[in-house]
């Protein structure tokens, strides 16, 4: 067993950590750059590198490490179950300027967990024990971290796996307070995140439905976590990490004019990821982001409904102008107005 490794320096050592959750097809290099423009988290995590007996490091995901000029540490996330290939990939990743290696034990997509990877690993505690042991031996000069959920469809293995986190000296645990089968539905069990904070030796990032600075403060207070990891709600509000820091310092949260939201949408549209797509695909890509942005823009839900009906670039941006530029005094809601 190796001793724990120090985590990279945070932006504000006096405050709890913040992290952008890894989200497949979202948290690429260009989205990290966009988020950094509005206010970086302490840590970024890549989309997952798929690991199997024929896998090679995905060049697009690797760019989020090798071409990243945000100034923030980037953890490289892996997903897989083949121990030799996870070890091989972890060693390859350690040749790059990564903050650490992260193991995905939480992805709730059925096409993923059916392969006994991601959240599917939570059904196999003995396998998890072996994986963590081998990875800890392979990754001993920088942090080894884990992102997981409370369990697969119940929490029967929860405490057993937390003890493995200790046994293998994991350096950081990002814990989503739902099961795999919960997907993104139902209440987040912050009380079980609090139990994990008490039980494990490493810092814990609380994850799950942290949609506002107010929520972040409540979750930190309720769980005692070392920080928060935010995913989908940072898509809708890229100012959220700065707002969390303002709230932690008891400062007034700076309002975001809707015209700035309109500029954010332009940035998303113009990223190289979007710019190389055919128009229909590009519209679909932008709508993935707008599904969250819309929730903090319009109390009635009209923007969300009409946005989903648009079929051309002109329709889309005319609609954005109508809702975002018609009243320059309006600001982004500090709490999303409804849920998806």
From TrEMBL:
Q: What is its EC number?
A: 1.3.1.-
Q: Which cofactors does this gene product need?
A: FMN
Question: Which residues does the annotation say bind FMN?
Answer: 77, 147, 176, 231-232
Q: Which UniProt keywords apply?
A: Flavoprotein, FMN, Nucleotide-binding, Oxidoreductase, tRNA processing
CDD domains linked: DUS_like_FMN (cd02801)
Q: Name one Pfam family in it.
A: Dus
Domain DUS-like FMN-binding: residue ranges? 20-268
Q: Which residue windows are transmembrane per the record?
A: none
Q: What class of enzyme is it?
A: oxidoreductase
Where does the record place the catalytic residues? Answer: 107 (proton donor)
Q: Does this entry carry the keyword Flavoprotein?
A: yes
Q: Name one GO molecular function term.
A: flavin adenine dinucleotide binding
Q: Which residues form the signal peptide?
A: none
Q: What is this protein's function?
A: Catalyzes the synthesis of 5,6-dihydrouridine (D), a modified base found in the D-loop of most tRNAs, via the reduction of the C5-C6 double bond in target uridines.
Family as reported in the entry's similarity comment = Belongs to the dus family.
User: Per its record, how is this protein called by name?
Assistant: tRNA-dihydrouridine synthase
Organism of origin is Nostoc commune NIES-4072
Lineage of the native species?
Bacteria, Bacillati, Cyanobacteriota, Cyanophyceae, Nostocales
């Amino acid at each position: 067993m190796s001793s724990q490794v120090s985590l990279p320096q945070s932006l504000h050592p006096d405050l709890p950590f913040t992290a952008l959750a890894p989200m497949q097809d979202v948290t690429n290099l260009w989205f990290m750059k966009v988020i950094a423009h509005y206010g970086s988290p302490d840590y970024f995590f890549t989309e997952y590198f798929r690991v199997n007996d024929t896998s090679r490091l995905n060049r697009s995901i690797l760019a989020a490490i090798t071409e990243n000029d945000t100034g923030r540490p980037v953890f490289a996330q892996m997903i897989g179950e083949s121990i030799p290939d996870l070890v091989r990939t972890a060693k390859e990743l350690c040749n790059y300027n990564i903050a650490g290696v992260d193991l995905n034990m939480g992805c709730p997509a059925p096409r993923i967990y059916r392969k006994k990877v991601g959240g599917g690993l939570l059904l196999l505690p003995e396998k998890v024990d072996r994986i963590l042991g081998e990875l800890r031996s392979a990754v001993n000069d920088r942090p080894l971290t884990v992102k997981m959920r409370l369990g697969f469809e119940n929490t029967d293995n929860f405490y057993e796996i937390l003890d493995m986190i200790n046994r293998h000296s994991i350096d950081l645990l990002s814990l989503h307070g739902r099961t795999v089968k919960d997907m993104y539905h139902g209440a987040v069990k912050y009380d079980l995140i609090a139990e994990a904070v008490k039980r494990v030796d490493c810092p814990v990032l609380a994850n799950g439905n942290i949609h506002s600075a107010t929520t972040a403060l409540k979750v930190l207070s309720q769980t005692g976590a070392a920080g928060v990891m935010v995913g989908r709600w940072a898509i809708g509000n890229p100012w959220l990490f700065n707002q969390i820091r303002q709230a932690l310092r008891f400062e007034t949260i700076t309002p975001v004019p809707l015209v700035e939201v309109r500029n954010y949408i332009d940035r998303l549209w113009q990223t190289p990821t979007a710019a190389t797509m055919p128009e229909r695909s590009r519209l679909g890509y932008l709508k993935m982001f707008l599904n969250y942005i819309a929730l903090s823009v319009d109390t009635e839900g009209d923007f969300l409904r009409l946005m989903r009906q648009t079929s051309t670039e002109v329709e889309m941006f005319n609609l954005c102008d109508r809702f975002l530029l018609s009243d320059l005094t309006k600001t982004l809601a500090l709490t999303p107005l409804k849920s998806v």
